[in-house]
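JOB MANIFEST
job_type = single_chain_structure
chain_count = 1
residues = 243
[input]
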Amino acid sequence: MVESMALGDRPHVLVIEDDPAICDVLQRHLEEDAYDVTVAVDGPSGIAAAHDLEPDLIVLDHQLPRVGGVDVCQQLRQTEGLSVPIILLTTPNRSGHDFTGLTSGADDYVAKPFSAAELTLRVGSVLRRSLVPAGPRPVAGLLIDGDLTLNPVSREALQDGARLPLTTREFDLLHFLLRHPGRVFSADDLLTQVWGWDYRDQSTVAVHVGRIRHHVEPEPAAPRRLVTVDDSGYRWDPAPREA
């Protein structure tokens, strides 16, 4: 079942959550903060709404009836091919949910219990990174490294002319590393610079690095561009210039 309000020019958030109380609180806070909101109460209806309505962001509960949140996330990414930002609501006191959610393609996660104000701030932060203004897209500021091209304005990444299906966080991380070639950044550095987090969850960085490698490395298990530097962190090695 899907419930929605009239959609306008405001950012559109799809909430996939089966708890009526949480749905009500999130919808009220998001609408008060100038978002249009659609609510889906299970996985299949959420997948259908994401496909039909093309929301700007999805808030997805980890534990859903019929189809779980991780499976929903994987289907949206792999089967539907959607790059819409996804914030996963994880369940407390069960280790591994955040890690599993991120490997399934989520951009961010918020652990329950959470405040609606906290989630609204997280929604705004993710959307600021992902929304692209309408109109002509300038090419100034392109980042080019061998066969890889990033356009920070249109938020598109191309490899050999083919668009890479990066999530919001994957694009942000790749963009940051390309802007600082040859420099080593620890996981904590990247969490601060890219995620803007003041708490440390280094597995988040490792998961996103792994996913970027699968996009850009011919042999992800033996990376030559996004490399691990001992125990220090990660470095982007530019492609050799042709003679």
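[summary]
The chain is about 40% helix and 20% strand.
The chain has two domains: 2-130, 143-236.
exit_status = 0
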